[in-house]
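We emphasize that the prediction below concerns an isolated chain of 271 residues; any contacts that depend on oligomerization or on bound cofactors are therefore not represented. The input was used exactly as deposited, without trimming of termini.
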Amino acid sequence: MGIVYAIISGKGGVGKTTTTANIGIGIAQEGKKVVLVDFDLGQRNLDLILGLENRVIYDMVHVMDEEAGLKQALIKSKHTDNLFLLAASQTKDKSALVQEKVKKLIETLKEEFDYVILDAPAGIESGFEHTIMYADATIVVVNPEVSSIRDADKAIGIVDAKCERAKENKKVQKYLVINRINPAMVSSGEMLASADILDILSIDLLGKIPEDKGIVEASNTGKPIILNEKSGAGAAYKRICKRLCGENVAFEDVETFNSPSIMGKIKGLFQ
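Result of the prediction step, given as a token string:
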């Protein structure tokens, strides 16, 4: 049986769907069979980030309503044979998510895949609750800013309440991904340090992603940043994926701001 991860955030715009896509590819590159499920009905974006928007014919609602088979709806990634996408519906809203149908779908996927990764809608609306209900663990994505941390704290509270009820008061593991870390801003005090964020949220750290201008281009071209061998963010996602696959990977320091010396700048002019 596969393991189910729900990737959530307390608010939109923190990079949750980008994180979902990159983690999916990274775990698949580790030799695991992975399916990504987009739960953001009416506002799907995961297919765009993976470059699969032109291949979507059937979606998760078609499968849950038995209007299409699962094999018909699953789309294989262009980047790795081990990764598949089950897209969200663009025409239905969150009311199409019926608890028993969601449960049946996830149980079916667990039988076929090593990792089932659910991309929750942003915020804490009804689609969010359906996404977390049957997850074995949740991955909370935040930015190092007060509003993101505050909203994430609310989301974590809902995870604790809903998941423990669904799993007969058993604790659901929660992991934290801190995204878009700017070392200069952390150093100057304009951005929260990871130690402060962990102290506030009190959940296990899974990874820290540095700010990377290449992520926007990667999302627009359907080639996630983890495929870029020169990207610091891509390397950070790879470390996260190895941890999720059971490897003991050290945490790299992505927060220290190393300002180049004057002599270093001068030398650079002559290189």
